[in-house]
Amino acid sequence: MTARPPRTAHPYRDLDVIDARAPRFNQATIGTLALLAVVSGWWPILALLAAQLAIGLKFGRRWCLPCVAYFEIVQPRFGEGPIEDSRPPRFANQVGLTVLSAASGAYLLGAPGVGAALGLLVAALALLAALTGLCAGCWIYRLAARLRGIRARRVDSLALAELGIPDPIPGDLVVAFTHPLCTDCRDLMADLRVAGHQVTAIDVRDRPDLARKYGVAVVPMAFTVDASGTVLVRIAG
After folding, report:
1. Interval 197-225: pLDDT, tens
2. What domains can be seen in the chain, in order of their start residue?
3. Residues 6+ apart with CB under 8 A from 98
4. Distance CA 138, CA 20 (A)
């Protein structure tokens, strides 16, 4: 049997990133069970799913049963998938928790039609995400993060000295906020270098202060700047 390559991201320690297949496995589990709950009328399944999401969000992936099943059974057999920022799928879980809680509450209050509609909404969105990778909660997170960044801290310039970039720089420079375990970050860096750009990478794990200052809500995020640090164009994020 061919040995699988070692994990690049530890599932229970590297919490700022996640194997992209893990959320889809979780979504498949939630979607299937939510659909079963509505079709069978066993609505307490929705409450159990909400409780499981709440426990996982509060105490971490070791307490998320679908996550443990993926990392301990599926991933060792099929290998690690692309590594991505964990914040969007975490937000999607928070959205799922809210809707599942509302569905359970509706059943408890004697409004099974509302409960069923909310349960089917969770099932549809979760199964869509599992099958296609189109995660509605993740897109809401990215859109909200982008809007927050534009409104709260529009990035017109970067302090090059603060970023550790020597002055002066010859020509334009791409400053990329990345994470060393992020697959999209590595791909972006490789593409920029192949295209002939000068690139400086800022590791958000080492410099969370800079990530907060410049509103980096999702990695990778990259800017082309001139010799004075003025942002010419935002090319990623």
Report:
1. 888 899 988 888 888 888 787 888 898 88
2. 17-146 (no CATH), 154-236 (3.40.30.10)
3. none
4. 12
Q: Encoding tokens for residue 200?
A: 């400086």
DSSP strand pairing (17-19 vs 173-178): unpaired
For the whole model, what pTM was predicted?
0.75
How much is the pLDDT for 22? 96
> Is residue 125 predicted with pLDDT exceeding 50?
yes
Strand-pairing partners, residue 231, are: 225
- The set of residues, in sequence order, having a beta carbon less than 8 Å from that of 76 and lying 6+ positions away, is 4
**Confidence tier at 28 by pLDDT (50, 70, 90):** very high
Give the bridge partners for 223, in sequence order: 175, 234
DSSP string computed for the chain = -PPPPPPSS-TTT-TTEEETHHHHHHHHHHHHHHHHHHHHS-THHHHHHHHHHHHHHHH-GGG-HHHHHIIIIIHHHH----EEESHHHHHHHHHHHHHHHHHHHHHHTT-HHHHHHHHHHHHHHHHHHHHH---HHHHHHHHHHHHHHHHH----B--TTTTT--SS-SS-EEEEEE-TT-HHHHHHHHHHHHTT--EEEEETTT-HHHHHHTT--SS-EEEEE-TT-BEEEEEE-
